[in-house]
Amino acid sequence: MRLLILSLLFTSTLAWFYGRDEPDRWSVGGVWPLPQKIIYGSKNRTLTYDKIGIDLGDKKDCDILLSMADSYMNKWLFPFPVEMKTGGTEDFIITVTVKEECPGGPPVHGASEEYLLRVSLSEAVINAQTVWGALRAMETLSQLVFYDQKSQEYQIRTAEIFDKPRFPVRGIMIDSSRHFLSVNVIKRQLEIMSMNKLNVLHWHLVDSESFPYTSVKFPELHGVGAYTARHVYSREDIADIIAFARLRGIRVIPEFDLPGHTSSWRGRKGFLTECFDEKGEETFLPNLVDPMNEANFDFISEFLEEVTETFPDQFLHLGGDEVSDYIVECWVRNKKIRKFMEEKGFGNDTVLLENYFFEKLYAIVEKLKLKRKPIFWQEVFDNNIPDPNSVIHIWKGNTHEEIYEQVKNITSQNFPVIVSACWYLNYIKYGADWRDEIKGTAPSNSRPRASAAAERLWSPAEKTQRAEDAWPRMHELRCRLVSRGYRIQPNNNPDYCPFEFDEPPATKSEL
Amino acid sequence: MRLLILSLLFTSTLAWFYGRDEPDRWSVGGVWPLPQKIIYGSKNRTLTYDKIGIDLGDKKDCDILLSMADSYMNKWLFPFPVEMKTGGTEDFIITVTVKEECPGGPPVHGASEEYLLRVSLSEAVINAQTVWGALRAMETLSQLVFYDQKSQEYQIRTAEIFDKPRFPVRGIMIDSSRHFLSVNVIKRQLEIMSMNKLNVLHWHLVDSESFPYTSVKFPELHGVGAYTARHVYSREDIADIIAFARLRGIRVIPEFDLPGHTSSWRGRKGFLTECFDEKGEETFLPNLVDPMNEANFDFISEFLEEVTETFPDQFLHLGGDEVSDYIVECWVRNKKIRKFMEEKGFGNDTVLLENYFFEKLYAIVEKLKLKRKPIFWQEVFDNNIPDPNSVIHIWKGNTHEEIYEQVKNITSQNFPVIVSACWYLNYIKYGADWRDEIKGTAPSNSRPRASAAAERLWSPAEKTQRAEDAWPRMHELRCRLVSRGYRIQPNNNPDYCPFEFDEPPATKSEL
């Protein structure tokens, strides 16, 4: 017996060294993010394409469930480039039971994503309160499916699973102003988000550099502010993205950042203040809203009415970050602004002028026909007075301790928070960088990745402490996503997937 | 006049700030890498698909030129996703004149890549010594073509160009051992290399982790050493890659690293020594060749005979790096090796045993039926005695000064060098990292990228000193490559391409 144990230990070391697979180092039918509770059965069952079916019960007309059934049956359940066997087994029906009605809109904040999933040798049963829970359950079920190299068959692990997310907002922010992302590229993000059970697309639509949002009421905004007439999201594009996200259980929260980061709004005459350099020369780089011009608030009001008609989500991100970066140039050195401040009794205190702007903005939001909960970046809490109804979005902090301190401080004043400070996905580096965050020192120097973040946001904290424990499942996740057609970089040092990424040399772009 | 200049300055600042285009900040018909001499004409000419033709003169049967004509006519000359206009202009014939015969094999070391290219309003004329020069000229010509947004027409800039590379070896190393790369993925690299006028694929085929090379004589090597039976390059795959590279003017230099980094050769019984940990227990992690076993040299000889029949390039990379990393484990702690060293009179000096191995390896290379020039990593120069016929490959050095010092030292002893130390393309980071290398402090902390390296290796040093000057052309290059179907990340801070990358959501992998 002792010999056997030794031999296993050696195998394990070898496996690690050579980057090879081995049962406890590479999951088979592992689920990412880790469910709240999962008990695997001891047996697996073979799946063949013509014997598998999905029964949607009394929800056979629900477009969300129909789209789900189609995607999983035709793409995600059997993603590997192998011949699919047919026949040879009993039927395997996935019965989906959802309590609540099929919603006409996207998920609302806090909607249940809870589900029960039982996979036996004869069937699979999904029970969920909402269609969103059913979507999460189906993704989990698809991750219990694996391709067995020996028998050359698809198999599914038997399991009993209870699951629900740790946090209600699990999002990714995309910035379509600094670099325009095509509708298809955004859809690819949404698809892969749903495979990681992420449920919020925070769409930072507009920034200083460009204005790709197409307003019907104010076409001069994108007319002047977009990079080119081709670099815009048409009304149809936006509706298409929201609908595509909804079918995958994802909310789209738009951001229109005010009063800074606004250069690209310059199509609207009089919206921005004149800005000046140290010598008093005009810089022609306006980046702050002109708070003196009362017409600007009427415009913002009309503009946001249109935005709320465009984006159904009950949250509306209104930015508020880095105003101070432009205050000297655009407010302090601007004589008209200084005069206005004196008239209002603000003296030299630009914070009072900021507050003046924000109070008028809160009043606009308050009066919107379609009610919205505003989100602001943390500066509005740090420097100003947030509307009591606001959500505060934390993006600063160099250590976990600093970030926790901020969370404590802001939530103790009864503001809900969204924390982005520790998840800068654009900070990339050489190697298996997703592991680094776990060490937990300086977040701004650490490099998590979206799947790693997705697990921290969904799964129980106590079960997801060590990168070492996570990697066998993450490796399997990566390989599954690669086979699903997504270019996911290796997440470990030397290793391989059963089926590696493949793509023919480029041909001429399609019209 | 002063007002006009000021206004231009302001426009320039604005353009920079907003990431927008502007004539002197974003090239139109710019060439990357920069030619030795280029004089643009003042006029451009419209190109329409049915009026353009390529005349290969007396080389109409040359497969390399036929493949070139097909690729450029059908893909690379007109890559943008726009309707192609026809008619409306006079014929525009590209006449290609090549002096030397069409070669049956890939480029040989030092083969001329020089060309003359003249583009007038009525025609284009390419003159080259070799087909390789013609390939480079055609890529240059394709980069003079641009899509004019105003007229919605393809146009070509008129120009007179004399060009040739600064260095004869301009390569990229791929490692298909630590992560297996599919044949298609390698072909995509080759395609994009040719668009950057790179001419060497250094194929690091085999390493400790896996052995994807399929030997006919010794199938046990990949049989045991490949990750799986799917993770191999068949004989046909290798021939396919070499042929694909040849058509694009690229040599393929294979590397078989000896005597270290050899774990994956373990399919060959007796090839590796036993290795031991501090306690004298066998580690089962052999990574060094057994130099005592005379049969191993017969095997290496037979194996390399096959390699030279497989890879036509006259260079053969035989590694030699990081032997010292395993010497204690696999030689010093190995009693049989110690005994052998005593017998040979090496005492405790493992360097003498290394030399013994290398001398026998040189003798094998010397006797190869197909003559090959060996390349060794720098340790063979630093620690041992390289064969006088060797090329030394520099990969160490923390500063430019250190690297230059090594180049001086090694070349002063009459060894040609390949320098990789300052071009670690796998060191990536956030942002426009290709610029950093220009600052020229610590190469291992800097982050160049392949296109940046390609220009440094091709273009005159004195004309390519500043990243600031390079970026307008690099930006145009990136946008062209994106339109050609390659996912090139933005190389600047906020910016845009006329046509952004687009790709539909993934569908099921093809069989």
UniProtKB/TrEMBL annotation, chains A, B:
Signal peptide: 1-15
Domain Beta-hexosaminidase eukaryotic type N-terminal: 89-144
Keyword presence, Transcription regulation: no
Disulfide bonds: 62-102, 275-330, 479-497
EC number: 3.2.1.52
Active site positions: 322
Catalytic activity: Hydrolysis of terminal non-reducing N-acetyl-D-hexosamine residues in N-acetyl-beta-D-hexosaminides
Record-linked SUPFAM superfamilies: (Trans)glycosidases (SSF51445), beta-N-acetylhexosaminidase-like domain (SSF55545)
All copies of domain Glycoside hydrolase family 20 catalytic, residue ranges: 167-433
Tree of life domain: Eukaryota
GO cellular component: lysosome; membrane
Annotated Low complexity bias: 442-454
Annotated protein name in UniProt: Beta-hexosaminidase
Organism: Caenorhabditis brenneri
Taxonomic classification: Eukaryota, Metazoa, Ecdysozoa, Nematoda, Chromadorea
